[in-house]
Give the backbone structure.
Amino acid sequence: MKKLLWVVMLLVAFAFIFPIVMMFFTSFKAEGEVLNPASVVPKLWTSENYRNVLEWSEEAPFGRWLLNSVFVSSSVTLLVLTLSSMAAFAITRLKVKGGGAFLGAVVFSMMVPGQLFLVPVYFILSKLHWLDTPAALIVPATAGGFGVFMLSQFMRAVPSAVEEAALIDGCSPAQVFINVTLPLCAPALATLGVLTFIGSWNDYVSPLVYMDSVRNYTLPVGIAMYQASYYTEYGRTLATSVLASIPLLIVFLVFQKQIVESMASSGLKD
Amino acid sequence: MTWKKRQQLTGYLFLAPYALSFLVFLVLPILVALVLSVMQFDLTATEQIKFIGTQNFTDAWKDDYVKQAMIATARYVLLFVPSLLVLSLAMAVGLNAVKKGRNVFRGMIFLPGIFTIAVTAILWQFFYNLEFGFFNWVIKQFGGTAVPWLSEKSLAMPSIVLMSLWWLSGGTAVILLASLQQIPTMYHEAAALDGAGSWKTFSKITMPLIKPVLLFTVLTNTIGAFQMFPQASLLTQGGPELSTRGTVQYIYEIAFQQYRLGYAAAISWMLTAVIMVFGIVQFIAMRRNSAQ
């Protein structure tokens, strides 16, 4: 019985990664072999698809999309970590008046469904003349309340005696924040950083709505557009997909524990 | 200035950057969405921008395309959420029972969730392809005929749901597994001593104990499913015959292909009203759980 269950779970787990394995193998197949599902592993390995993708072209500048994605996701991650930790520090450690009420408003805002923001944020970005610039993908992404909520919870759970002593001894709040609070919160910051990076890297709807020029796209919209124009050339589109996913696979392999555990605890928190 | 006052002032300086972003990109948009929804606001006819009261809402109420999109959305929610729950729960129970290799299996099941929807849709389009897709190849090996996964009206939505299950059920299974692991083993040992079978133990002990987490996953996934958009827009473009075009895709098309921002904002509010019902239930349920 135990053995049978183990085999079933193995099959289920295999079914989940099979499409990913298939994507990887197919991207190394020559054009003729791509359309033959009977061969899973390429009979003849070729890097032709990858060379086609990486050739810089005006219609599909893959390298440019990659740079845009790296720049946008890194900026979003850095800004979210900075702004959220500063805000959580002000609320839980410096205990600003009205901080609790502000946190309540932030948590309440997390209930408003994201689709409501599509049209008005587009309108605000157009007034700021930020449409079709990286700012449109970076700045609005820092407004979400999850980071402030999560870091405030974390800071409340760890004792603040050291920080209070340091403040009374005459350290400036900025010194305490940088030298005591941030190192203390390192595990929570790592988790928040990884989740923010993945979310930003995978965001498809924002660049679709706020970006206009092909060279300003990030990878998700770029590859979706690429797929629309090279519809049947699956070798190429799957090679693009593999390239776009490699940075995330690396992040996942390195931070698997943090990612899976933060997901797991999201249902248990309350 | 006293020390206390200075600390307050510094506090506000620390809070200010986030608060500014929160005000401009979370609070202000809600107000803008309210104003837009009562305006005739077409970017292609800017000289005709004017206040029209509730007309966008009455128009949307009569719009057959809105009705069609709401029906497509409801079909997705009703197909996706129950199947997600059953599949994730079964996988979580399975993972909880195996000891050897549990973390590896968990990682494998979770992995699809880290891919962007663009990659996910390309991959599944390849699998669903009529002539040379993997699924139809398997069916043909067993002597069947090719199935039009994405072009047949009755099949397109279930095909989108299947892809979404692959993409998202691992994450839910991980959440449920964590809640199963929190159940003290002595409960099950006591039930076994009393001679309870495994089904009885599951339904009388396990299920009631993980009920709060089950409710949480049902509600968050329902809220998410109501906003389904890229899955269908990439896999079927909302077809065949608009049968898989959800409400958010329709809002997107009105706002960013027809540039009718006012009308789009009104439909957005109608969908928000539906979603907020589930959001408020979730809020109350969370409050009650944390109060216990």
Chain B is about 75% helix and 0% strand. The first helix of chain B runs from residue 3 to 37.
